[in-house]
Amino acid sequence: MLFNSLIFVAFALVFFVGSKIIGSRVKGRLLWLTAMSFFFYGWWDWRFLFLIIFSGLIDFVAALAMDRDEKHRKLLLILSMIANIGSLAIFKYSGFIAQNIDALFSLSGSYALANHIPEFFWITPVGISFYTFQSMSYTIDVYQRKFAPTKNIIHFFAFLSMFPQLVAGPILRAKEMLPQLLKVTVVSKEELWNGFRLVVKGYFKKMVIADNLAPIVVTAFSSPETNASSFYWWGIIIAFAFQIYCDFAGYSDIARGLAKWMGYDFPDNFNHPYNSTSLREFWSRWHISLSTWFRDYLYIPLGGNTGNKFQPHLNMWITMLISGLWHGAAWTYIAWGGIHGFFLSIERILGWPAVFNKFSILKVAAWFLVTVQVLVAWVFFRAESMGQAFEIIKTMFAFTGPINPGWGLNGTLFISIMIIRELIVALGIKDRINWDSKKWMWFEVFLYAALITAVIYFRGTGSEFIYFQF
């Protein structure tokens, strides 16, 4: 069930009307939220409901057992991790692993392991990486005694399966979310308005910007032959950078807006990442819930910044490579993670962000350098194969061919909107406006009216959110 579909509008109306009828009864609200979230997820394929229930039951029981059994706490955590990572390995990576084993042993025989994997396991369940990581963080936090586990299974599944963020985040932390679910908050007019703003901005980013840029990007990458123009491919990668940002940030905005209407507070998942002047800053602004998850549950446990001079780089490389693999079962995603790891190492060794940020003109140079690095990495993220990615990179840096970014009038319009938007934020213009003044309040009303009009009349071809596949 897509946010950008009429069936979801009907679903949301039923959910909020039902919530209003239930009122302040916490148990009833938790049960209603869980049932509707299961319905929402089962809309894609009801069979995968068993997977999220299995993953959740494992972690719910493991957390309770850890709380009662001091002697076997570590063993219970390991079993929980094996179950979660195992389900990811089977449903997301089994085909990829089999294909690479076949490629490795292709010279020694004709047995094709990939052909013997059931077709069902080639289908990646929607959002499996998101809810698996969310469930894993619950048991890890209980093991580290950050909070006591809930004894109410409906309370737990309301947290794990909450439909606004279930299939594409943000990845929630139980420590912040479980207490919220036990409170019945009367949503104020201000929060209703804040939720409305987030929902409208989210739909505009997805349906107007991302969905109008998508055909440009799809046409370029689906062509059997690589266009020989360097400027064309720089233009296409810029279009993809804004497409994936607006697609994913749009989903996160809608999820956060819906949560506000429900009386809950989700963390911000994006903070204008393309305004970053270092890659480290980029990762503090891009997909924040995932980057902090990897920081807290992988990078720091590996040793973080401690150890000899080489160790922090190794820890960072492992984290970024696994981050790439998290995004998809393909070498292109691993390469994307590796490229970010490489550039982050160079950045740390040279220490140039600290030097560049001392002077405004050098900040611009730092921003330009980071943007180029991010764009180069996006090539691998979007490419159909490693061969195509290398061919595109080769063409981009040849600096030959006509100066035509390949955007057309449509692409130029929507990319220009995004560039202007990011400049307004980067230059601090937005922060200098008193939004509480009557003049700007009316401006904001007209602005959101214009955004809604654009969503209705200028939306692109409807498509799934890009991060549903992860």
Q: What overall geometry do the principal axes of the alpha carbons give?
A: globular
Poorly predicted ranges (pLDDT <50, ≥5 residues)?
none
Count the strands?
0
Number of domains: 2
Distance between the termini: 16 Å
Overview of the molecule:
The structure is a single chain. The protein is an all-alpha fold. It has two domains: 6-184, no CATH class; 190-457, no CATH class. 69% of the residues lie in helices and 0% in strands. The protein is built from 18 helices and no strands. Helix 1 (6-22) runs antiparallel to helix 2 (26-42) and helix 3 (49-68) packs across helix 6. The longest helix has 34 residues, at 189-222. The protein is globular and about 65 Å long. The mean pLDDT is 89.
What is the fold's blueprint, element by element?
Layout: H1 6-22, H2 26-42, H3 49-68, H4 73-104, H5 128-143, H6 153-161, H7 174-181, H8 189-222, H9 230-262, H10 279-285, H11 288-302, H12 311-327, H13 331-350, H14 352-356, H15 360-382, H16 386-396, H17 408-426, H18 438-457
Helix pairs in contact: 1-2, 2-6, 3-4, 3-5, 3-6, 4-5, 6-7, 8-9, 8-17, 8-18, 9-15, 9-16, 11-12, 12-13, 13-15, 15-16
